[in-house]
Amino acid sequence: MAVKGGYPILIPSYEHYSKIESPAILGFAVLQDLLNLARVNSLWPMTFGIACCSIEMMAAGMARFDLDRFGIIFRSTPRQSDVMIVAGTISHKFVPIIKTLWEQMPGPKWVIAMGNCAISGGPFAYEGQYAIVNGADKFLPVDIYVPGCPPRPEGLIQGLLQLQTKITKGTIDANRRAEKAARRAKK
Ligand code: SF4
């Protein structure tokens, strides 16, 4: 990762390409890396908050923390979004709505679980509770976890930068392919 003017810029290294020998594979790899480079510098999260953590998410988008400088701009429709930030407590009743929004987002798309509620149920994960889901990863393919109750905007920004790194390294694609193959093998 290069740092220019205080901001990280994700550029695939020359060494990365020089290890690939086949011209056909080289062309595909370069195209994929270029696409990923464009994607990470224009992540568009959906304007979507469930509980208190979403106040911190909103703060991250406002002038003081200014997510726009990373090309991260909130969109007000799932049709134009590629990142779902699950920010808040997830009730069982709300799960079908989250799933519908996720399915309406075009791929490739990614999920960030923001806050302890979205990671594990947070303060609502106690014996006998029946209304809250113990984490977004029970029904969504979560890529990044941002802990805290609530996490500060800097925490969310760190999570988004980690997501950019995972996308440019291609680890998310590899993980999703492995998950799909495991699901197929189970059938
Ligand atoms: S993690 Fe804490 S701040 Fe965030 S939604 Fe849950 S209770 Fe609220």
What is the compact description of this entry?
The chain is mainly alpha-helical. Helices cover 43% and strands 10% of the residues. It folds into two domains: 12-40, no CATH class; 53-160, Rossmann fold (3-Layer(aba) Sandwich).
SSE layout and pairing:
Elements: E1 2-4, E2 7-9, H1 14-18, H2 23-40, H3 53-61, E3 83-87, H4 95-104, E4 110-114, H5 116-120, E5 144-146, H6 153-169, H7 171-186
Helix pairs in contact: 2-6, 3-6
The chain binds iron/sulfur cluster.
Iron/sulfur cluster binds near residues 88, 89, 116 and 117.
What does the model show?
This protein has 187 residues and is mainly alpha-helical. It has 2 domains: 12-40, no CATH class; 53-160, Rossmann fold (3-Layer(aba) Sandwich), CATH 3.40.50.12280. It has 7 helices and 5 strands; from the N terminus they run E-E-H-H-H-E-H-E-H-E-H-H. Strands 3-4-5 form a 3-stranded parallel sheet. It has a two-stranded antiparallel sheet with strand order 1-2. Helix 5 (116-120) links the parallel strand 4 and strand 5 (144-146). Helix 2 runs antiparallel to helix 6 (153-169) and helix 3 (53-61) packs across helix 6 (153-169). The radius of gyration is 18 Å and the shape is globular. Iron/sulfur cluster (SF4) binds at residues 51-53, 88-89, 115-117, 122-123, 149-150.
The fraction of residues assigned to DSSP E strands is 5-15%
Instruction: Describe the largest sheet.
Output: 3 strands, parallel
Q: Which series of helices and strands comes N to C? A: EEHHHEHEHEHH
Number of domains in the coordinates? 2
Please count the helical segments: 7
Bound molecules: iron/sulfur cluster
CATH architecture of the largest domain: 3-Layer(aba) Sandwich
SS class: mainly alpha
CATH fold category name of the largest domain: Rossmann fold
Major sheet strand order: 3-4-5
Based on CA inertia axes, which overall geometry fits? globular
Could you tell me how far the N terminus lies from the C terminus, measured between alpha carbons in angstroms?
40 Å
Q: Indicate the radius of gyration in whole angstroms.
A: 18 Å
